[in-house]
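ok so for the tutorial part 2 we go from a plain amino acid sequence to predicted structure tokens. step 1 is just haveing the sequence, like this:
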Amino acid sequence: MKLTNRAIEALSGPAPGASAKSKEVSDSEVTGLRIICSAGTARRKFFYFHYTIHGQRKKAKIGEFPAIGIQEARQQALEWRAAVDRGVDPMDQRDRVRQMPTVSQYATDEYLPYAKQHKVSWDMDESKLRLHILPKFGPRRLCDISTRDVQMYIAQIKASRSPATANRHLALLSKMFKMAITWERIDRNPCVGVAKFREPQGRTETLSSEDLQKMLKAMESEPNIQAVAALKLLLLTGTRREEALQARWDDIDLDKALWFLPKTKNGKTRHVMLNMEAVSLLRSHVRLPGVPWVFPGRDPARPLNNPRKAFTRILNAAGLPYLRVHSLRHLFASFAVSSGVSLFQVQHLLGHASPSTTQRYAHLANDVLRQASASVSSIFTKAKPGDDGKMAA
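step 2 — the prediction. this is what the tokens look like for a chain of 393 residues:
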């Protein structure tokens, strides 16, 4: 019969004394949709979807009437019918959803273990998840995160922090959902179609020679000797913070002035050319017996965690504005370019995989280029004939 909510309300179970325990009525509108009315005074009624797949006859429970009405039952039955036509078993789909982990479970049990094995910067992912993403999405099922949810989230990050930070959060979410698809957890990535924010040109902090002098003077009074040495090495080599903090004595050859980095941000190895000041710094730095780290922490079994607090004290003592520890890398590049080093050479000094990353320092080369142009101008001026027809002296 054509089922309606009113008709279903009027349905009764088997007559008293009948052998049947329930009465089943098929819907004439949607093939496979049935309502089952139980015997007894309760007369509970449930929607089921009957189907055949791979030669097997099955049925899937939709829900109880009247909590679920006929229109909602038909919609669910039609969705399952479409799945059957595609060769997908609705029961498998339902079981998959029931077993779907929450974002918190997925991040902790699956994504982070993967990131620790494949990403040098996995700790940055862990920090974003712990401080921001999991408080927002943690209890929700992985399959329930929508594109709108992602868009609203990164908009909040942009408003409270910066476009660049919001883009890093979007990249992490996209990677997490991409891996979830690979591991057959979900079928779609809700980050697809979410546009990145336009980022301002990268910061290229510079210091005058006077400010650098103040910073070095303040370092002499800083009690954290390990942190001071690490900060000086960052400034002298332009390496990344973690590259310096994870430095081992076995990877440094002071006689050849070479420092081997076994693992960089892009996953490759590289050698850092140590200048005279860097070699002198490392030669004078105390090496603890049996400790592999160049800059050990309070527990010598571990490297120094973060020189941020010491750097803040140094900047305050020197009367200098706030700088990130990462700013020391930019200062190294700025000093190099301002001294006439080409952008190509700076790219290799910093270990940039792409020359486009080094282009942020292009404007600092203007004075050097102007001097080079002036030298050509000088030659041209000398070559010009004077009013008397003779060459300039």
